[in-house]
């Protein structure tokens, strides 16, 4: 047997890093600015603990384009490097100075916000540059150093005359990457990745308008001046304590995140946890549009204030991806290129923490200002209902604040609802029947009929509500939902005082035969009911079960029942106590009977929106003929 070490030579590894480690070339800027930020934060830490004697001051990072010379400069006022440190940190690929620093100052530097991790970021510069220079002066007395490398593993290191502390990185932009010499490109990149980084970043200048001097004429232009353009907000709201922020601050930060968004957010949730993992952030409930897909990818993920991605799949539970805002966690495992999340146990923990936190916050908003919560319910219900369906933990918590509005604009929690209807709405098996409407206008007649009997009718109109009802029916005991036009309420709800039939058994039998001759049996199941004489003579209903299955099929998920296409099948409920039905029976000629039945059937279909096209045209024509 032979044993040995695989020999990795730099010549082979170097091009690999350059080409394949980072799929996105643009991230070189993020990496270099992260290093400049680290260098500044390290110096801050060292001055804080007295290990550096220099004046910390107000350090900045500057990005400068020299278009003619095809150079891009990144200049910081951080702790700099001695020649020995350049040898150690730069020449050793995959040795992370950031990690070494965190190890060395384990106890004190935990929260210093140092970004670096893998010791590979610096080399991403070679993705866009064919030569890179580092001119750096350490915060110590050591002389400045000048390192140059053209992308081959050879480099030069000499003494430099740089006098001020800090590091300047000079990229000689390669022929195929000249886009990175454009102001607009760099400015867009800085805004994408560095907008909230903790050290001020200067890029170019901007024109500022000054107040007019006293005595200036109306037509005189206001004076202007060129000022430094700081592109970032080093203290974004999520890094602050919730206690230090007002409602206005949250709204202001929302505008900072989504400058083109006019609409104000409905609620915000400030996340702030440091055990067992570190995570901060602010989530916003926006006003939801009907198209849920468009809403996605609005939450941004940061690590130590560096933008990572706006695809938070996995970290944020699916139902909350409709929200907006930021999450910042150094503990979310990313791969070396920081772009793809690595799914593992830690991520799951974060996801369930976020779920819990969102539920708790919703509950406290509900408790503190129920009126406001009710007013916003329609805009947030889709998220909450979706969460109740997809996350069991959320379902349990949401029981305290999920609302069930009535057609009259009352809002019940589930418990309040069951208390309100307990006595009056039970079926033959003493199961509670929760009546609901999905469309106030279309189901108006049925709603009125139910209200006439003093029943509560909910208005449940979100697209996934049939799934939610199914879920509630299986997790709550002894309840069932029924749409107001599903079967007849008198069938659904146990009534002691059922109306007595005016028709004899014989009359009923001949009515039944007559109806079966005229009404197409493949579409309607005829039911004779002795109802109140004032109730409609003919009513069309669809069995709750059948309609809901169809709805669930339409909104996805129906497939799992393996039903294929279900036929359109309705009940035709005929009120044997109505005057009209009595008249139909007593009409002498068959032809006239048929006409009355068809006209009544069409009226019933019309009220359910089931009469369309040619049938509707014929109905209207027939009706005009009748009143002529
Ligand atoms: P990482 O940031 O993960 O440690 P990098 O490859 O990005 O790895 O950088 C390697 C090391 O080079 C850093 O850890 C740091 O010690 C040093 N370095 C890079 N840029 C700077 C800078 N602007 N100022 C001071 N040191 C720097
Ligand atoms: Mg780095």
User: Please, how many helices?
Assistant: 19
The number of strands is 21
* CATH architecture field of the domain at 11-205: 2-Layer Sandwich
Gyration radius (Cα, Å) is 36 Å
Report the portion of residues in β strands.
Answer: 15-25%
Helix amount? 25-40%
| CATH fold type of the domain at 11-205 | Heat Shock Protein 90
Distance between the termini: 108 Å
What is the CATH class name of the domain at 11-205?
A: Alpha Beta
Mean pLDDT: 86
> Which outline best applies?
elongated
In this entry the ligands are: adenosine-5'-diphosphate, magnesium ion
What assembly state would you assign to the polypeptide chains in this entry?
A: single chain
Poorly predicted sequence stretches spanning 5 or more consecutive residues: none
Strand order of the largest sheet: 5-4-3-6-2-1-7-8
- CATH-defined superfamily of the domain at 11-205: Histidine kinase-like ATPase, C-terminal domain
Largest sheet: 8 strands, mixed
Structural class of the helices, strands and pairings? alpha+beta
Describe the structure.
- The chain has helices at 10-21, 27-48, 83-90, 97-104, 183-193, 247-257, 292-295, 345-368, 370-390, 392-398, 414-421, 444-452, 465-475, 489-492, 505-518, 544-554, 579-586, 590-607, 613-627; strands spanning 61-66, 71-76, 129-137, 144-149, 155-160, 166-173, 201-209, 224-230, 267-273, 279-285, 299-303, 306-309, 324-328, 404-405, 411-412, 432-437, 457-459, 479-483, 524-529, 538-541, 570-575.
- The chain is of the alpha+beta class and 628 residues long.
- A hairpin with a 5-residue loop joins strand 9 and strand 10 (279-285).
- Helix 8 packs parallel to helix 10 and helix 9 (370-390) crosses helix 13 (465-475).
- The radius of gyration is 36 Å and the shape is elongated.
- The model has no long low-confidence stretch (mean pLDDT 86).
- Adenosine-5'-diphosphate is lined by residues 31, 35-36, 38-39, 76, 78, 80-81, 89-90, 96-98, 116-122, 167.
